[in-house]
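User: My instructor asked us to take a sequence, write out its structure as tokens, and then describe one feature of it. I'm not sure where to start. Here is the sequence I was given:
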Amino acid sequence: MARSRTTFTRDSGLQARMLFTLFLLGLLYAAFVAILFAAGAGVGIMVLVIAALSLAQLFLSDKLALAAMGAKEVSPEQAPGLHAMLERLCIQADLPKPKIAVADTPMPNAFAMGRSQKSAVVCATTGIMNALQPHELEAVMAHELTHVKNRDVMIMTLASFFATIAAMITQFGFFFGGWGGDSDDGAPAFIVVLLASFLVYIISFFLMLALSRYREYAADRGSALITGRPSALASALVRISGEMQRVPDQDLRAAGKMNAFFIVPTSVKESVATLFMDHPPLEKRLAALQKLEAQLQAPAPAAA
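Assistant: Let's start with the prediction itself. The structure tokens for your sequence are:
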């Protein structure tokens, strides 16, 4: 029997964290821009050029991500099963159907990109489609649709765009140290800019890590609510992690730039969790899903 449409809505905790992250980033970069322009007109022009390039990256993020993975959009005729699955899930999640892409790689993974729900694209690798059972793949696709529903992909792209500016300025500074002018205290202007850029990048990096970890918990929860089967996602995560151990290290490194958007990071081979992980540890994700499974299976309270 077909499932009725879920009451799943966007995660309010995630929405609050995204707004707070953007607020902190806004304050951070307002101060950063003030420092850059105070350092000299040449820096200001450079910032405008880099900002233009980064904005282009923002609006082309989905195309860049697909190109990085060697993925191609597929039609319903080319991937009927995947299209049918996404159509069912979109009805459950009350979402417009996204574009669907497939990356021909043995690495088992999936990701979602896009600035809005209407421009979203969901990508699965051939590796993940071959490794998972249908109910497990459905849970993974529901996880990716939750990212689209929550619009956290757009926020992560914005945050990474700001961090990219700081990183690029730092790199430019090392190669072109002779930026015009000195600061008021006599220190070379480019040293002031380098220090400010490095500090901005570090703060942005940790803000993105904190948001990235929470958004994975939120997407796991959304998948469980859309499908009604938290155990299916738990099984998929375990299977993906196991299959990832068989992928050659060079293939994992090549895809590492997409880690923040994958359902399971390519760094899964690392045995020790670190402060720099952009995903929660697998054990904690499984524990959260197990708890949600118990909640969903608990009998409803009897009417008074």
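For the description part of your assignment, you could build on this observation: The first helix runs from residue 12 to 39. Try explaining in your own words what that tells you about the chain.
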